[in-house]
Amino acid sequence: MGKIGLIIWREFITRVRKKSFLIMTLVGPLLLVGGISLIVYLGMQESGIQNIVVIDKAQVLTNKLQQSDDIKFFYEPSDMSDSVFKTSPYSAMVEVNPMILENNTIQVFYKDLPSQTVQNYLSTQIEKVLEKEKLRVNNVDPEVYQRIKTALKVQLFDIDKQGKQSYDQIKAGIGFAFGYIIFFFIFMYGVQVMRGVMEEKQNRIVEVLISSVKPFQLMMGKIIGVAMVGLTQFLLWIFISLILGGVGLSFAKDHISASAVQQAAAPQMSTQIEAQFAQSTTVQHDDDTNKQLSTIMDIWHDLPIVRILVLFLFYFLGGYLLYSSLFAAVGSAVDAETDTQQFMLPITIPMIIAISIAQTAVYNPDGPAVFWCSIIPLTSPVVMMVRIATGNAFDHPGELALSMGLLIATFIFTTWLAGRIYRTGILMYGKKVSWKELGKWLFYRG
Fold first, then answer.
1. Class of domain 50-140
2. Rounded to 5 degrees, what are φ and ψ at 190?
């Protein structure tokens, strides 16, 4: 094993054996999945039972809104003043105007803003009652209405794909997720490289190491070693997250099924019209669920999974190696982390631009800004993932090859550049370095 190999192994095994690595490898996915689940759960919860008073001037909704365990409805035929409402036990007040069947508008007053769950539940219940009332007023058979009721669905087709339905926007969102992962890990592990270089410099360990290896070998060993740590932890995170996600999805399906059974069993259908509505709604819900599952499977089969993963690994490593060499150069040039701020800005700005353009690419993957940022090496690791996921990159193989080639060439150049700075800065202490000083280091002989 060469000197660089020994340094790589030292960096890898030293970091992997740390308790912090083991803890974050196990706890990281739990925190991620648990944090998302907690946010969703808390967003759906209320501080207590929501007592909603309905001022039904049209006498359309009275005693027709279905209550739940957490949402209770009360009815008043006339207005309630603001002062009375403020001192009442009601958390929200719904005013129904006499022309509700024509203008389809209600006003909701609240003491504390209801959660989105409560708002959606209120809207759904009122819409159901209004729809039934309009059918009754117009003598329309509910079954006939359900057959002719039309919900417009827009299907996008790419003419070059022989009439096959396109899910490019959804796939672009998947590509953005991959790009964001690259963005996150570049900074996370790039900063680790910088701090590792600074620690060795501050502890004077580097003086011993330099006596045995060249500065460039030390820098490359540290960069690649940390890359292996990051890739190992990333793969473990994916594996653990998939297991947790599968368990969570199974639990969510069981919860939704139980809620559906409970709602269907509730004694809420008292008229023939309501029963017909319930039956048609259940059938429609099953059809929508089957269509959603079918759409997911179509997207899954339409995604070039193997090519996406291979290119994700390429851009993941390429972007990391490019930026980590710059982080290593910064770490070698300063004595304290507070001195890194002036050098961090030029490194940070391209990645911020990349994540912003990647968001734009989700809606317009063929835009000129997306094209150029997918070619320029400092932004291509993030932006190109959107084009790869949509298949746009494979429709233009020359552009993909150019992007990959430029990324490799730029990595080699930045590594050379960082090596010139590293060999001088790693042994320099007690001096505030400026951009002008860094420029001089590039031309030192040695």
1. alpha beta
2. -65, -40
